Amino acid sequence: MKNVTGSFLSLGHWPSAESFRFNTDLFSTNLINLSVVFGLLIFFGKGVLSDLLDNRKGRILNTIRNSKELREGAMEQLEKARARLRKVEIEADQFRVNGYSEIERKKSTLIDSTSKTLEQLENSKNESLIFEQEKAINQVQQRVLQQALQRALGILNSSLNSELHLRTISANIGLLEARKKLTD
């Protein structure tokens, strides 16, 4: 082993070692360097690289699982929202229909109430007119009667003398006595 190490350390045995210069044959030197680097990377980095890849794979799988769960939750919420929307639309249609029917019912009730009120006002007006007409007719009748009585009294007073007056009183007394006998 001393020979192998010594041969590497002693530059005198190498023919090209006498003058130090760069090897410009990149292919032969790089190939050896690359194979050594890759060998070391594979040997030492295999575990680290597989751990990194496993961690990355786990995070990606967790992210996929989480996004699937979030998607399922979002889909459930969307379905619930759609169901609520359908329910609200149905209720809105019912309110709309009930509202229209309620409006129509209140409208007809208001029309009926207004018609009854107008009818009552018309009846009240007619009753007031009839009352005023009867009142006017009664006043006219009272005046006519009063005037007729005043004329009749005037005529009676001017044409009645005491003899006619006594005859009228006697006739009325006779009528009263006849009635009394009939009732007894």
TrEMBL record:
The keyword Iron-sulfur does not apply. One of its GO terms (molecular function) is proton-transporting ATP synthase activity, rotational mechanism. Keywords: ATP synthesis, CF(0), Chloroplast, Coiled coil, Hydrogen ion transport, Ion transport, Membrane, Plastid, Thylakoid, Transmembrane, Transmembrane helix, Transport. In plastids the F-type ATPase is also known as CF(1)CF(0). The chain crosses the membrane at residues 29-49. Component of the F(0) channel, it forms part of the peripheral stalk, linking F(1) to F(0). It holds the Pfam family ATP-synt_B. It is a single-pass membrane protein. This is ATP synthase subunit b, chloroplastic. HAMAP family: ATP_synth_b_bprime. It is found in: Membrane; Plastid, Chloroplast thylakoid membrane. Belongs to the ATPase B chain family. It comes from the Eukaryota. Residues 64-98 form a coiled coil. F-type ATPases have 2 components, F(1) - the catalytic core - and F(0) - the membrane proton channel. F(1) has five subunits: alpha(3), beta(3), gamma(1), delta(1), epsilon(1). F(0) has four main subunits: a(1), b(1), b'(1) and c(10-14). The alpha and beta chains form an alternating ring which encloses part of the gamma chain. F(1) is attached to F(0) by a central stalk formed by the gamma and epsilon chains, while a peripheral stalk is formed by the delta, b and b' chains. One of its GO terms (cellular component) is chloroplast thylakoid membrane. The keyword Thylakoid applies.
